[in-house]
Amino acid sequence: MSRVTQGVGAVGFVLARPARMLGIEPFHMELIAGIEGRLSGEGHSLLLHVVPDLDAEIAAYRRWAEGKLVDAVIVTNLHRVDQRLEVLAEIDLPTVVVGGPRRDLPFTNIWIDNAQAMRDAVAYLASLGHTALARVSGPSGLAHTQARTEAFREECAARGLTGVVVEADYSEEGGARATRSLLGRAGAPSAVVYDNDVMALAGLGVAAELDVAVPRSLSILAWDDSTLCRLASPPLSVMSLDVYGMGALTADCVLNVLAGGPVLSHVAPQPHLVPRGSTAPPG
């Protein structure tokens, strides 16, 4: 049932990830900037809390709800089976979900078609002539990781390409380990799609270390654009998403929920290809 929420003027955002990643990975900082930019203009503030795991995240929601410390919360990085949604419904805390894998959630949500974006990425690399592809993914338990991985495998199979998936954790170290594993095996891929910019940059470093020329011997495609991608040598080709704009859309959804608006599913602008110097036909 719709309700108008008048409370403390704070919106909670809990991130279950190593705090050091916030200083390295631009995605969440751009998202936060977009959210805060819109909320502050409407007299609301964003309360950011970084915790080590999902149990601590759920504990934060319960504490906030019991103490009436926030008027609503923003949830990201949905898992395939996500206990957080059940808890948030149980404690009746107004919620906006960002990047949900489907549109029929019980909360207002912003949906991203990760599967189509991955199909577009594979199609682009195939159009360059690559037949041996790899994907360095984020944690497999995340719903958007599953959507991208399934689409990657299906599109590779449909086009008669070889497609290998190696799981990592979004970190520089994880991206480097995955790249070494891929380039050190027989039948190494000629193109790799990374699930974020940090891992792609780590992959670029490993390629230089192993004397694998980019893009002549290896094409690299990163997910999400950033200044890091644009300043790399060569600049990284990316599947670009307007993260700041998605943050502003998230804030608009929060404001609508607080005003008693209905549960709605919004479609975020589709990630689109920005080709740069890190992709080319195989040498």
Task: Give a quick rundown of the structure.
The chain has 283 residues and is of the alpha/beta class. It has helices at 26-40, 54-67, 83-90, 114-127, 143-159, 172-183, 197-209, 227-231, 243-258, and strands at 10-16, 45-51, 72-75, 95-100, 108-111, 132-137, 162-167, 191-194, 219-223, 237-240, 265-267, 272-274.
Which descriptors would you attach to this protein?
6-stranded parallel β-sheet; disordered N terminus; 12 strands; alpha/beta; 283 residues; 6-stranded mixed β-sheet
- Helix fraction, binned, reads 40-55%
Q: Residue-averaged pLDDT, rounded?
A: 93
Sequence of strands across the biggest β-sheet: 2-1-3-4-5-11
Shape: elongated
Count of beta strands: 12
Q: Quickly count the helices.
A: 9
The Cα radius of gyration reads 20 Å
Protein name: Substrate-binding domain-containing protein
Keywords: DNA-binding, Transcription, Transcription regulation
Domain Transcriptional regulator LacI/GalR-like sensor: 122-279
Pfam family, one: Peripla_BP_3
Helix/strand layout:
Layout: E1 10-16, H1 26-40, E2 45-51, H2 54-67, E3 72-75, H3 83-90, E4 95-100, E5 108-111, H4 114-127, E6 132-137, H5 143-159, E7 162-167, H6 172-183, E8 191-194, H7 197-209, E9 219-223, H8 227-231, E10 237-240, H9 243-258, E11 265-267, E12 272-274
Task: Tell me what the structure shows.
Residues 122-279 form the Transcriptional regulator LacI/GalR-like sensor domain. This is Substrate-binding domain-containing protein. Keywords: DNA-binding, Transcription, Transcription regulation. With 283 residues, the chain is of the alpha/beta class. It is built from nine helices and twelve strands. The chain has a six-stranded parallel β-sheet, with helices on both faces. Helix 6 crosses helix 7 (197-209). It is elongated, with a radius of gyration of 20 Å.
